TrEMBL record:
Taxonomy of the source species: Eukaryota, Rhodophyta, Bangiophyceae, Cyanidiales, Cyanidiaceae
GO cellular component term of the entry, any: mitochondrial large ribosomal subunit
Keywords carried by this UniProt record: Mitochondrion, Ribonucleoprotein, Ribosomal protein
Chief location of this protein within or outside the cell: mitochondrion
Xref: PANTHER family: LARGE RIBOSOMAL SUBUNIT PROTEIN ML49, MITOCHONDRIAL 39S RIBOSOMAL PROTEIN L49
One BP annotation, GO: translation
Name the UniProt record assigns to this protein: Large ribosomal subunit protein mL49
Amino acid sequence: MSSTLGTLWGSFRRLPRHIPILPFPLSRAASQSTSSSSQPHASTSPTASPRPPRRRQRQWNPPPDLKYPVRPIPSEARTPSGFVHRLGGYDHLPFRVGRTGKSQQLPVYRDYRGHDRVFTVLRHVRGDVRELATDMSKVCDNAPVDVRPGPRLVVVGDHVRDVRYWLLGLGF
């Protein structure tokens, strides 16, 4: 008896553990052949889901009390993918913001903590970090900026888009 259980158990172990049961047919042809109505489904008609319009670049208005003026970003500086190269002209600033390694993006990140807390993080900062933090606070609706080791600047709230426009306007 134990030998037959061993062979049965061995055959069960070789079976796949999870066989997906799909609530929908695998192909459209199968779903259309089983439907009784002659009207096409709304999901298969060509006008059911038009392509959404392209989003325009949002205009960013800098706060009026910034210590260092922000230049507008010329439209020819932006590539079709939305990337903007360094505009330069930041030699007079007491701080620098480097770009990321290979892709040369601005190091501005959204950080989620817990389930509902959002932080904006600026990395690759050199020079007078306190001066950068005071101007960044004005850009982020006067939110307090925390200077952390690295150095990193952390602000409570989702200000990623505003900080990116501000850094691009400074020439970084």
